Amino acid sequence: MMLTPREPSNESKPVTQLAFARQGVMTDAMKRVAEREGLEPELIRSEIARGRLIIPANIHHLASSLDPMGVGLVATVKINANMGNSAVTSNQEEELKKLHMAVHYGADTVMDLSTGGNIPEIRKAIIAASPVPLGTVPIYEAMTRVKRVEDLTPEILLTVIREQAEQGVDYMTIHAGILMEYLPLVKHRITGIVSRGGSLLAQWMASHRAQNPLYEHFDEISDILRAHDVSYSLGDSLRPGCLADASDEAQLAELKTLGELTERAWAKDVQVMIEGPGHVPMDQLEANVRLQQKYCHDAPFYTLGPLVTDVAPGYDHITSAIGAAMVGWYGSSLLCYVTPKEHLGLPNEEDVRNGVIAYKIAAHAADVARGRRGARERDDALSRARFSFNWEQQFALSLDPETAKRMHDETLPDGFYKDAKFCSMCGPKFCSMRVSQTAEKLLEGAEHGH
User: Fold this and answer.
1) 74, 46 contact by CB (below 8 A)
2) Whole-model pTM?
């Protein structure tokens, strides 16, 4: 019988946050997450013990530069920013610039998706510089060690996973849910298998006529992750890559397998979150979240987008932020950003900034919709500053203060904004807020006989 997240495993000395939480131990990381969330430490501990909250915090990263954060239903909605070398372009210096850009604008986690260059060195530099959790997709590095997909072996995959865990990676995308028997289910799709890791494993399985090695060796992988407290980010290899493929039999078959794997990971005291789609029409978003919660036992949901339309290449940070705000409202805990370059090319620093800001907006909107304590306070404070023409306060409360200030100042004389009770859009005569205030004063005067 599979263990539930409330039943501790029989392993000896606890290492993972899940193991500590199950034993009633309050760790410093739990206390820090509680402080950051404005919640009681005991609530954080109990949610981790139930599997509904994770703290992605590799013991090696935690001992150096990491500031612990939580992902789960009781926490604020978080966002992830992707980066990493490609086989075509980019370098370590550029990736560190992207890291600093992402963290500066509010990314809660980052993923190194490098597929070229000196991947271990790039990752080492990112871990050393990153105060936020780092995720990876180990099969990418594994592929750089072989000439052909068919040459991959379970030993290579396990070696890469172990090396990354020892280096300090906080969570790993493991595509263990795509099974041999699910491959025929994608034949009808327009875009097939769009997950890079999933497509590589599909080719390996088709070539060897064998089951997914990540599924077959899942318990061994769990032992490695437990030893370093690396969290699973169970990959959705069969996520839809276009609206037409959303919510199909292939996607849902894999989702059920991810639920099985969640229980197997919990049995090893390994923390788990589940990756989700993808490209999904707005009318199917809530159902997707509810199915994930049902099949995966309320493990935190980590969604890419979803994009709610496929017709806007170059603007997919917008098409996906719409879906991200909605699934965040329905219950997703971590939103993986999409940049304007999605489907088109490797993002640069400006693309990273645009993606992070779009997703900070989505996450905050979701927190407001969920009724998170304190979420609306920022909106109301900014609105009061706007009505009183307190420009400096407006800028300070903005998700992107630099852009707000620049846009306001660029069409007004230098320094003029500090005292102007209008912006360049309406000017002094047609500013509705200024006119409204004048009207209120006139009414007050009339009431007092003036």
Assistant:
1) no
2) 0.91
